[in-house]
TrEMBL record:
Details of cofactor binding: Binds 1 heme b (iron(II)-protoporphyrin IX) group non-covalently per subunit.
Name under which the protein is recorded: Deferrochelatase
Organism: Psychromicrobium silvestre
Domain Dyp-type peroxidase C-terminal: 231-409
Presence of keyword Aminoacyl-tRNA synthetase: no
Length: 423
């Protein structure tokens, strides 16, 4: 596969076809498609055209080898929800997973999950209606199973992958139970926040007698970049996602599971979710020179301190006239870079979030860090180092944490996630 047809292609959308020649998502949110290209709109390929296709019509295929929402170029908005089963019946779990799988496919195609306006005046609408007429908006829905789903309640212990266990306690954490764990999760990403919210709301609603919501995070701006995307900024004002995984070869090597003690995990991945609170007032009072040292990069350009342009390769060995390395050894990028971690990489897919203000009037905001990797140990290795010595720690607190096994994509309509568990 060529570099143009990189990570995004592996969830079923050819990036070359999808973006067309020189296509880009404009600031206005419209997907411009070059004359030679077409766009995946609704469920069909559109003919070549000169006029921009509105991003509202963008639709990613739901069925495929991998779930969408992983290698998919990150959309602008996120609704993440973690759920606990309230029912202890395996049949109820099976029912939820079957209902969700079908509804997820419908919503990703821009459809409702049933009538929003039934003909009978006495009928309660099946779909809540707030996304009617808005189009699919590039919606992806990604489902994960938490370690607790495989406890004694549903008799699923024999299906639990050996790698799926709660993350170990690490330095730099002040975890709150209200943002931690969950039996199931849904990551909803879209170019419109209401479409993402509608999807999660309706999934929760159709399973309300079997599951309850445990915690949720609304992400209002992507803080990572996929292939062919500009690099966005996190709430500290720095470009985030510059050296993210974008190539299909890296996805195969670091993200997609090829071997597992559980056959049902092949083609899947592990999702780490970390709600990271930023001490924004403290950061905003910091000098720019220190901000550069903390990340090891410049602020506006996002260049490594050893280079000039954003995508210059950092030189972690280069020394200044004082004999110290130009990129501090305890800067965020020096600690996290694959060059300094035996080649370990992960796919970052995080979002900026805000919860308004806290009870003493400080801004309550930060990074909802999401990463996909074939083995949770990739995250643990990096976070153990970052938690122990990252200069950034003065300005952040990890307050939420969860690990989920993300099964592979569904091959076709009629199949459902977790089907293997129920014989
Ligand atoms: C609020 C918390 C965090 C902030 C604000 C943050 C911000 C940044 C920024 C600005 C960069 C440089 C640009 C880039 O290459 O993307 C970066 C790089 C990176 N971050 Fe973070 N990050 C945070 C948490 C984490 C965590 C928890 C991990 C993993 C455990 C992580 C892993 C990485 C990696 C692997 C890189 C690429 C380093 C390289 O290869 O140069 N980050 N981060």
């Amino acid at each position: 596969m060529s570099s143009e047809e990189s990570a995004g292609a592996s969830d079923g959308v050819s990036r070359r076809r999808f973006f067309g020649a020189g296509a880009a998502v404009s600031a206005a949110g419209a997907l411009a498609v070059g004359a030679a290209g077409g766009a995946i709109a609704a469920t069909a390929l559109r003919p070549a055209q000169d006029t921009p296709t509105p991003v509202s019509e963008l639709s990613y295929p739901f069925y495929g080898d991998h779930q969408a929402g992983i290698s998919t170029p990150p959309q602008d908005h996120l609704v993440f929800m973690s759920f606990d089963m309230t029912s202890k019946s395996a049949t109820d779990l099976q029912l939820v997973l079957a209902k969700w799988s079908a509804a997820m496919a419908q919503m990703c195609a821009g459809q409702t999950v049933g009538s929003a306006e039934p003909a009978r005046e006495q009928a309660v609408p099946v779909d809540t209606g707030e996304a009617v007429g808005m189009g699919p908006q590039g919606l992806t829905l990604t489902l994960g199973f938490g370690p607790s789903l495989f406890d004694e309640r549903f008799g699923l212990a024999k299906f639990k992958p050996a790698l799926l266990k709660d993350l170990p306690a690490m330095a730099g954490e002040s975890l709150q139970a209200g943002y931690t764990g969950g039996d199931l999760c849904i990551q909803a990403c879209a170019y419109d926040p209401q479409v993402a919210y509608h999807a999660v709301r309706n999934l929760a609603r159709m399973a309300r007698t079997q599951v309850k919501t445990r915690w949720t995070v609304l992400g209002f701006g992507r803080a990572s970049a996929g292939a062919n995307q500009s690099t966005p900024r996190n709430l500290m004002g720095f470009k985030d996602g510059t050296r993210n995984i974008t190539q299909a070869e890296d996805m195969d090597q670091h993200v997609w599971i090829a071997d597992s003690d559980q056959d049902w995990m092949v083609g899947g991945s592990y999702l780490v979710a970390r709600k990271i609170h930023m001490l924004i007032e403290t950061w905003d009072a910091d000098q720019i020179g220190d901000q550069h040292t903390v990340f090891g990069r410049s602020k506006e350009e996002g260049a490594p301190l050893t280079g000039k342009a954003e995508h210059d390769v950092p030189d972690f060995a280069a020394k200044g006239s004082d004999g110290a390395t130009i990129i501090a050894a305890d800067s965020h990028v020096a600690l996290a870079a694959h060059e300094n971690n035996g080649g370990v990489k992960l796919l970052r897919r995080g979002y900026n979030f805000t919860d308004g203000i806290d009870d003493v009037g400080r801004l309550d905001a930060g990074l909802f860090f999401l990463s996909f990797q074939k083995d949770p140990e990739q995250f643990i290795k990096l976070q153990s180092k970052l938690g122990a010595s990252d200069r950034l720690n003065e300005y952040i607190r990890h307050v939420g944490s969860a690990l989920f096994a993300v099964p592979p994509g569904l091959p076709e309509a009629g199949k459902y996630f977790g089907q293997e568990f129920f014989g």
